[in-house]
Every structure is written in C-alpha cells, then in structure tokens.
Automatic annotation (TrEMBL):
Biased composition (Basic and acidic residues): 1-12
Lineage: Bacteria, Bacillati, Bacillota, Clostridia, Peptostreptococcales
Entry coiled-coil feature ranges: 50-91
Source organism of the structure: Acetoanaerobium noterae
Listed GO CC annotations: cytoplasm
Subunit structure: Homodimer.
Cell location: Cytoplasm
Main location: cytoplasm
UniProt record, GO biological process: protein folding
Protein name: Protein GrpE
C-alpha cells in the first residue's frame, strides 16, 4: 500500500469515525430532546393535576364555609324559635292566670264587703276567720303576679283609674276616694280602680 492509500484509508476511517460520532451525537441529541419533551409533558400533567386538586380543595373549602354558615343560621333560627316558644308559653300562662285572677277578684270584693258590713263585730272569731281567709286568698293571688293599683290621693290617670264620680275640691284631678280597688297582673291592668275624682 502506498502512502496515499494509507492516508486515504486513515482519512476514510477518520471520516467514518466522525460520522459515527455525529450520528451518535444526533441520536443523543434526539434522545435528549425526547427526554425534555417527556419531562415537559410530565410537568404539564403534574401541573394539571395540581390545578385540579387546588380547584377541588377550593370547592370543598367553599362548601365547608357554606355548611358553617347554614349551621350558624340554623342555630340562630333554633334559638329564636326557643325564645319565641318560651315567650308564648309565658304569655299563655299569664293569660290563663288573668282569666282566673279576674274571676277571683269578684270573690275578693264580696269578702271585703262582708268584712266592711261587720266592722262593729271585728273582735268575733267569725270575723277574724273571714279576714284570715281573705288574707290567704290575696297572698295566693299576689304570688301569681297580682298587684293592687295605688289610687287614693294620686293624680287621676285614665290608664289606671275609672272615674265614676266627680266632686268639687281644692286640688283638681286628684283621686279623693276609691269605690272599688283596681289591680294589675304582671304590669297589665286587668281592672282599673273605680274612683271619685276632684274637679
């Protein structure tokens, strides 16, 4: 082999070797680009999954907040309902008591008239017994919230007093006599006092 042939062969080998290196590099570059694409795709998938999970978490948090608000409203509604029922129950009790107490006032009036007519016999056992019964009856009515309206020597007030007689006096619009006692039940007038008023 001649020198030329040898140089040619070496050049050919070098070229083939260079070509192989180029092919290998191209393959490696293609593989690297494929790997990059694959990594990018995986990142995109992960990002999509994270976005979906974040959206799901936000949706669940919103549902939790809505449920909390609903629970608070329900609790408030229940407390209002409970208060309303208690108030209605109390009013019903007062109304029922009012009816009974109003009926009992007629009996009280009769006891008071009986005692008034027998004042001269106030030392008898019968008088004292009736007086004791009246006191016990009034104590029981007071326990249910009955209050006597203070009228004598007070300014006339049509909310508490019912004027049946007017009489000349020094001071006008004063209650100068109580003909029948008036009563309140839990701050509600159930019977105004029948009074004589100055004019």
């Amino acid at each position: 082999m001649s020198l030329n042939d040898e140089v040619l062969k070496e050049d050919k080998d070098t070229i083939e070797e260079g070509q192989e290196n180029t092919n290998t590099m191209q393959k490696e570059q293609e593989m690297t680009q494929d790997d990059i694409r694959e990594v990018d795709e995986q990142e995109d998938l992960i990002n999509e999954e994270e976005s979906a999970e974040t959206a799901q978490i936000e949706k669940l948090q919103q549902e939790i907040e809505e449920m909390k608000a609903l629970a608070q409203r329900t609790q408030a509604d229940f407390m209002n309902y409970k208060k309303r029922v208690e108030k209605e129950k109390s009013e019903l009790t007062v109304f029922a008591n009012e009816k009974i107490v109003t009926e009992m006032l007629t009996i009280v009036d009769n006891f008071e008239r009986a005692l008034q007519s027998e004042k001269e016999n106030s030392e008898t056992a019968f008088f004292k017994g009736v007086e004791l019964i009246l006191k016990q009856l009034m104590d029981t009515l007071y326990k249910f919230g009955l209050e006597e309206i203070d009228a004598l020597n007070q300014d006339f007030d049509p909310n508490f007093h019912h004027a049946v007689i007017q009489e000349e006096a020094d001071e006008p619009d004063k209650v100068i006599d109580v003909l029948q006692k008036g009563y309140k039940l839990k701050d509600k007038v159930i019977r105004p006092s029948m009074v004589k008023v100055s004019k």
